[in-house]
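Re-running the complex after MR caught last week's input typo. The corrected sequence lines follow. Everything else is unchanged.
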Amino acid sequence: MVDLEELKGKFLNTEFASRDLQLEADNLIAAATASGESRPEFVDTAHESFQATPAYLCSISSGRHLPVDFPSLGGIPMDGGKAVERFAPVKAGVPLTVKAHLHEIYDKKGRSGRMIFIVVRTELFDADNAHLANIDSRLVVREKPDS
Amino acid sequence: MSITTIHDVEFGAELPVFEPDTSLANVGVFARAVGWGGPRFESHEGARKEGFPGALVPGIMGMGFLTSAIHQWAPVGQVEHVDTVFRAPMLADTPAIISAVVTDIDEDDGIVELDMTVKNTKDETRVFGTARVKLPLS
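Corrected-run output:
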């Protein structure tokens, strides 16, 4: 059985990936419109606060799901959910920096075994290093029973 | 009723039901826009070859449906935080029903908390979550 305290001590709150990117307005509009969004700030580039929807932000990745030396837990990580916290608008066509770290590791035990939850936090910053948003990806791994 | 200030919100109020477009074509538009285009989200046959029952609606599109429902209910509200759990796959070309209920109101800070679900027509929950929405004080 994996020792979660050991994993936490080794991996939590340590940046494991980063990259720079820019969002394209056409993609923001297409994703927003397909989601049923009609507010101008999400579908009209002429709006003074044109920006990405929370759902679009969830598609932004650091390029890695987990640290390169993170151990295998015996199962395939599944996408258990996403969360977004927004501090300022995330706009198209401006330089952004994405940084990722492991924010939380915890487990839940049931009759069918133990599930391990790994929360990867992706932070978005603008060129002035202003913190724009956090995106949490919840990976779920069904632990392989000891044989 | 359209919500314009925090004082318009009632505890326990249900948001108007929102039925999103889950057609395969629309799901494909979303998937390509977020860089996830491919058989899993754009082709029933292709998704079945990957072991799925049909083309999937991306979980984050479910989040998009939820925030769109919030924005329709409160056109000036700002979704500060949204947290969604992907409980089971949503299938393209299968109707989805969005519902949400007000679970907390902070009239001093203009904050509303919502519980939200995406269900299929069999009343099975596919996605559920919470949202924190900021509304004007006056």
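None of the earlier attempt is carried over here. Chain A touches chain B at residues 26-28, 30-39, 53-56, 58-59, 79-86, 136, 138 (CB under 8 Å). The mean pLDDT of chain A is 92.
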